Amino acid sequence: LRDLRGFHSIDRDLYRILVKDLERDRTQSLYTMALWLWLERREFCRLVTKILPLPPSLINELADEALICLRCLDPRIPPLESSNEIPLTQGLITNREISLPYFLQNRSTGLQQIEAIVTGVCIPAFSDVAESTTARSNESCSKESDRTMFATFSKGYPVTENEVREFFNIRYGDCIYSLSMQPVDEGQQPLYATIVFQRVSFIHAILNGARKAKFTINGKHVWMRKFIPKTNSSSSSSSS
């Protein structure tokens, strides 16, 4: 079970957003996640990785579209007339065409396959998330270092705080909790900054599995890595 939850850590982050941040129905959210995983298995790009760093408002709308897709897969529900009711999902999937008729065409087996993902993957992988969201939220708030990244800038190419904020907010939505530039004397250039993000999932999206990430902000290079807090080394006392 631990291995399964570890393998689906990013999926768990997204499920946590659905049920905690957006306060969506837990069971519906299991099926929403199962739908996105089902689409990934059918080679419709890495949906969860694309959805995770989006602003909560967009994630909420994508979840609403997922419910529309699920209704199209359910043979007990009459088909929807419009085929253009999932614009955000269509915009997110760039490697293949997708529309509501695709789900209607997969009514015979699609819902069964999704239910198998719910029971075989989502329930065991996410079952502890909903119950522990409050405790985990308190823990994450107390551990800012888990949500903090260290940014470094090139000497001679000054980057302002506003430039950093604007870059990441445009790229990942409302993601920055706080940002502290290196304190310097007037006229000097800050060479680093610490950025606390709203959620750990933003760091996963920025690093994308790497130890460091390089960005170009208005033609100036910025390197990002996970913040590692300094620990006080304890010296051993000698007995006399």
Automatic annotation (TrEMBL):
This is RRM domain-containing protein. It comes from the Eukaryota.
